[in-house]
Amino acid sequence: MTDSSATPSTAASAGSPRFALSSHLTGWLMAAPLALVLTVFLVAPIVMIVVVSFWGATEFSIYPAFQFDNYEFLFGSDVTYRVFFNTLKYAAITWVFALLIGFTVAYFLAFHVRTQTWQIALFLLCTIPFWTSNIIRMISWIPFLGRNGLANSTLISWGVIDEPLEWLLFSDFSVILAFVHLYTLFMVVPIFNTMMRIDKSLIEAAADAGATGWQTLTHVIIPLTKPGIMIGTIFVVTLVMGDFITVRFMSGSQSANVGRMIQNDIGLLQYPSAAATAVILLVTVLMVIGLMLRFVDIRKEL
Amino acid sequence: MTRELDVEFVSLTKRYGETLAVDAINYHFHAGTYACLLGPSGCGKSSTLRMVAGHESVSSGSILLGGRDISHLPPARRGTAMMFQNYALFPHLSVTENVGFSLKMRGVEAAKRAKRAGEMLELVDMSAYGDRLPAQLSGGQQQRVALARALITEPQVLLLDEPLSALDPFLRIRMRAELKRLQRELGITFIHVTHGQDEALALADEIVVMNDAKIEQAGKTRAVFDAPATAFVARFLGSHNVIALPDGPVAIRSDALQLGATKDARLEGRITNIEYQGTHVALTAAIAGDQEVTALMSDRDFFGAPKELGEAVGLDWEGQDAHALRA
Asked: Which residue of A has its CA nearest to B88?
């Protein structure tokens, strides 16, 4: 091992030192474009946000500084805790529903649809809503769920209810409904992907060993699908925690999450405060993901 | 013991839409035999095995085990166990957990499970690997684990789907001996699907040669090899020449062909190829009617009287060595 790897490099450096240097340089050059892109579009903005989060602000101006006022204010206000709690609540409830629906859909596609043509056709069908914009998909719920909307008038005409249901729209219900609608596909895709890689003969082997359908699910399919579930979970949780527009439209500005808090600050030109909130949100999301990765190893899926 | 555990196919049929994969086959396996289903890919041998295992529904006809119709029972209640081609070990479970899986499904407690699994692993000589994951084992070791997992259910019939095809040639021969030993020790019926005629000849007490969804010929291995009934069987088993003679085609084993002077020989030919095979020399000769025959000579005979390429030779055989073939 050592011999074979040592020989060419010694030969190269003995023959021409410039050649050895340039092969070293090639590595850096090959990594450079992506490093540059990531630096400019990822690292720099985050550094900028962290820097600004320590700045100060008055009603009409912001000024560079290094002070903890923004953080002190954030951690001192119980609004922050309520809003963060609300954000985590949305993420958790949406996750549960997205997982249940996403897993079921993926399971159906992977194990019950026999031909690949149908699998692809049905999978594309799932993506059709994504051909329109997020906001349009969201807004289209409003005429359906509204006080005089389709849902209420249908229920009234069937005699199920006498009064229109108030909680259908501009409530936590409608926010979560929209989240589940928007983000379940992000759960379906990775789970479906992992399930397709499960060797079908494992299911037969389980049946051979006398496992019932339920036992096969819990002892074979779910354990083998875990990495896909985890990737989907990361998608859904980060998307929901970073969202602000869904909460604004679907709650009729009556509920708040962290995204809304940041948006408000920006509307009031309180950039340092918005930056501080963003930093805390980022840290929270990273902690949530870190916690999840402790349970499931997704490396082999990537 | 013997009689009641025979496996029988009664016009067993498998249809996939319009295509017939298995066409009303009948066969009777005696209990405790090592049987091979032999045939080219797509001949229906795997479908047959999967029907016996219960992983493929029976289109019509039935499968009897010890006189009991098992055609529509769930896999685990048939008294059969299957060893899959790629072994199908659960990648997330350790070797011991894999072997004990069926006991876990039955709700056997953990300590008892581990003990039974340990015994099975001992049977296949894998005791040292109980804590490993399947991915940390070699192909041959995975196969032993798969065997142990299949045998822990105490099946009356073990079904093996091309069990040796994923192994390298050297290991294949070793595992072959191992399978034979296990079958002898356990005394249960093994039904083994393969497309390798050497594997079938080496292992089987009985072979069932399949072609085109039908059984071409079946019976005791030696009986089938010594007297192939059709040109297909003769060609598929190998070491046979199929020669079209004026009164119909015959199969003659290549080691039964004698090369001699052209005078008085039954056939005349010209040597087109000489292949040295160590203990033997294979001579290919072109004969009338654009046919080729291969004669196998022992190296001693050949080098005692060497032949040259292009030399005219006479081909002869004993009358009883030529087997007339069904069309």
From this structure: A202
ipTM above 0.90, yes or no: no
Nearest residue on chain A to B81, alpha-carbon basis? A208
Q: What is the CATH number of domain A79-301?
A: 1.10.3720.10
Which chain A positions have a beta carbon within 8 Å of B84's beta carbon?
A: 201, 204-205
Q: Note whether B74 contacts A223, CB cutoff 8 Å.
A: no
Where along chain A do its domains lie?
Answer: 79-301
Which of chain A's residues have a Cβ under 8 Å away from the Cβ of B106? Answer: 210
Alpha helices in chain B (DSSP H): 45-53, 95-99, 101-105, 110-123, 139-151, 169-186, 197-203, 221-226, 231-237, 299-304
**Nearest CA-CA partner of B178 in B150, B202, B208:** B202
Mean pLDDT across chain A: 87
Alpha-carbon distance of A113 to A110, in angstroms, equals: 6
- What are the CA-CA distances from residue A272 to residues A52, A242, A265, B26, B175 (Å)? 5, 18, 9, 84, 71
Which member of A199, A202, A209 has the closest CB to residue B102?
A209
- Indicate the pTM of the whole model: 0.80
Q: Which residues contact B120 (CB under 8 A, 6 or more apart)?
A: B99, B148, B149, B151, B152
Residue B195 has pLDDT above 60, yes or no: yes
- For A4-51, the pLDDT digits (tens) are 444 444 444 444 555 566 778 888 899 999 999 999 999 999 999 999
**Residue B1 scores a pLDDT above 50:** no
Residue whose pair of structure tokens reads 């003995």 in the numeric block: A14
pLDDT of A236-268, one tens digit each?
Answer: 999 999 998 888 888 888 888 899 999 999 998
């700045």: which residue's tokens? A55
CA end-to-end distance (rounded Å), chain A = 28
3 state DSSP class of A226: helix
DSSP string, A71-123: HHHHHH-HHHHHHHHHHHHHHHHHHHHHHHHHHHHHHIIIII--SHHHHHHHH
Count of CB contacts below 8 A, A vs B?
64
**Interface mutation target, options A194, A200, A208, chain B, most CBs of B under 10 Å:** A208
